[in-house]
Design brief:
- This protein has 355 residues and is an alpha/beta fold.
- It has twelve helices and ten strands.
- The protein has helices at residues 16-23, 63-76, 95-104, 123-129, 142-149, 153-173, 193-203, 232-239, 252-255, 303-307, 310-322, 336-346, and strands spanning 32-35, 80-83, 108-113, 132-136, 178-184, 207-211, 247-250, 274-275, 280-282, 294-297.
- It has a ten-stranded mixed beta sheet with strand order 7-6-5-4-3-2-1-8-9-10.
- It starts with 15 loop residues before the first helix and ends in a 9-residue tail after the last helix.
Length: 355
């Protein structure tokens, strides 16, 4: 079955008016924001995209500031927010209130968690307020979970138990919330591809996605002893478990990406910036902690003032003019597919009217 959520691509074509404003040089509000709400985490995944020293802190965005930010984001035209950044969002004491507040403000809210820490008495209101909830559980057995995710086997059982609670609540109350699993494919879990897809089906989630590993400062793809092509048979077998109620999604485009970009400038950050778990706003997670790309802090400033301020525009222009995307950016960056699309729009081919 197809990737019905288009996880292996982008959805900018559904936001033509915002894209047109961008083409005309107008200052635009982000469509979607990936963000942390805390920098602390209860586990230590070996592949963590944010596993850099400056993020090894216990900082978090105060709940009142977080809710204020969500209201401002909705006010300026942001459509969606994902709590899935550099820490574990369920550690934040205000996460439930923030998700509810964001949904009430008109935002499409989403959240990604390792699933170990969840408050059962608040799961219903959480699920009612989320468009989707994804569980990052990159293994199908306690033994592999312990190794890949840097924590105990007990945490595997806790995560599975919480996933079952969520699928039960969704079924009982007829909720529309999409529930999913995510495996980051690294060598240590590559022999559990099919078992992982089977586990997702048994747990009753809507999908299981198997995705590439993305580079960060300490985890370079050239050092990973994993060729995705040699797992093609297992990945296709996992996909074959899809049915009308369950979708197994393999991010083939990302896995087959050899790091070659057709574009020479990064435009995507204007549509999808990222916020660190301490409230710092950056063009993307690849530059977290780099003062040259810092644009403000949502706990200290109005988000509206940040987005339409001089510093924000200065940094976004620097990203487009001073960043060499072929050398400075990691393979499989978050904005890659958006950039491929925008580059073609900004540099159209000949004979475009001959559709």
């Amino acid at each position: 079955m197809a990737d019905i959520y288009k996880m292996d691509g982008h959805k900018l074509m559904y936001h033509g008016e915002r894209v047109k404003d961008w083409q005309n040089g107008k200052s635009i509000a982000p469509l979607y924001i990936d963000m942390g709400i805390t920098q602390t985490c209860n586990i230590a995944c070996e592949y963590c995209y944010y596993a850099v020293p400056e993020n090894k802190k216990a900082d978090m965005i105060p709940t009142d500031a977080l809710i204020r930010f969500l209201n401002e984001a909705a006010e300026i035209g942001t459509k969606a927010i994902g709590f899935l950044g550099d820490g574990e969002p369920m550690i934040h004491p205000g996460v439930y209130d923030a998700v509810v507040a964001g949904a009430k403000a008109g935002l499409s809210m989403s959240l990604s968690t390792n699933g170990v820490i969840m408050r059962e008495n608040r799961l219903l209101e959480l699920l009612e307020s989320l468009v989707w909830l994804r569980f990052n559980v990159s293994a199908a057995t306690p033994e592999k979970f312990e190794k890949v995710m840097g924590t105990s086997q007990d945490d595997f059982h806790a995560a599975v138990k919480n996933i079952r609670k969520c699928t039960d609540i969704k079924k009982k109350y007829g909720l529309k919330t999409t529930l999913g699993l995510q495996m980051v494919l690294v060598p240590e879990c590559s022999d559990e591809i099919v078992a992982y897809a089977e586990m997702g089906k048994e747990l009753g989630v809507d999908y299981a996605v198997i995705k590439q590993c993305s580079e960060n400062e300490h985890y370079k793809l050239e050092s990973i002893d994993l060729e995705y092509a040699k797992h093609e048979a297992a990945l296709k077998k996992a996909e074959s478990l899809s049915d009308e109620n369950y979708n197994v999604i393999v991010k083939w485009n990302k896995m087959r990406n050899n790091g070659v970009r057709s574009y020479d400038q990064c435009f995507g950050c204007e549509f999808l910036p990222q916020i660190s778990g301490n409230g710092d706003v950056y063009n993307c997670g690849n530059f977290f902690g780099n003062k040259d790309f810092y644009m403000g802090n949502i706990a200290e400033e109005s988000f509206k003032d940040i987005v339409f301020g001089e510093r924000y525009r200065e940094v976004m222009n620097r990203v487009k003019t001073a960043v060499d995307v072929h050398t400075a950016c990691g393979i499989n960056c978050r904005q890659n597919e958006i950039n491929e699309f925008l580059w073609k729009l900004d540099s159209p081919m000949a004979h475009v009217n001959f559709v």
